[in-house]
Task: structure prediction
Amino acid sequence: MTNVERGALIPPLERRIEVADMVAYAGATWDWHRMHYDMAYIESAGFTAPIVDGQMLGALMAECVQDWLGPDARLTTLGFRFLTPVEAGSVVRCDGVVESVETAKIQCSLTVHILGSNGVVVGTAASGHAEAKIP
Amino acid sequence: MSSSLLTDKLRARIGETRIYVAPEPIGKAAFRYFAQAVGDHNPLYTDDQFARDHGYLGVIAPPTLVCETNQYANLSRQSTGYAGHAWELEIPGTRLLRGGNEYTFHQPVHSEDVLTVTWSIVDMTERTSSKGVPMVIVTSQALYENQTGELLVTNIETLIYQSRGGAS
Result:
């Protein structure tokens, strides 16, 4: 990681998020909000499909940066803003750009895109930034 | 011009604090369950020897788990299914949206850590969106400490109470 420069691209991480993934995440976080699986509740709230817990996208951002930097790097900050709700069954892709590199510290910006059926970006689910200590 | 969403009664809640102490250590199973749920196969979260080889005492929590789990709160499920910390702010004519989070990871979280989580309301402001929709922005802070009082993570959370009535 010593040769990383500002503007370098972080390898993208892509994932389809199905209802089963959302149910697993709900269990793993002790968060059983009906928005993520209960269609009667979801329709009463004005949506037509279960909505992905936004924090699943935060987990994806953390994974994207940690996988890229390797196990000797340590994530020190992660921030994100939600821009568009993601419906169950969507494919999302996290990518990022290095914003700065200092001694033992790297900062990057991150985006989670929503992909259409042909793999083309159709929306932005979340934008964020992260900082990590690097060896 | 409509009346203000941010009443004096609401404003008086700035500074309110709530403390939760987890009933048990967070545990390795919570790390493995979360990692499996999100599809993150990094052995730092599941393999003690691998984690030790990279400078940790043993497996560590996936970074966002601590801020996301309601395990520590030990609360009953509400009618919405939600069972985590909530301020129960009542702002008539609004709907609640999640704005985002800012996490600072001060130290890695290990399976033996017993969390004490201190939530506080740090600010409330009223704004109008670019489309002219009034909203109240509520900023909360959660501090996650372990059983020896070490600060592990800080979480700044933004909630948006947006007027259902549209532009004012």
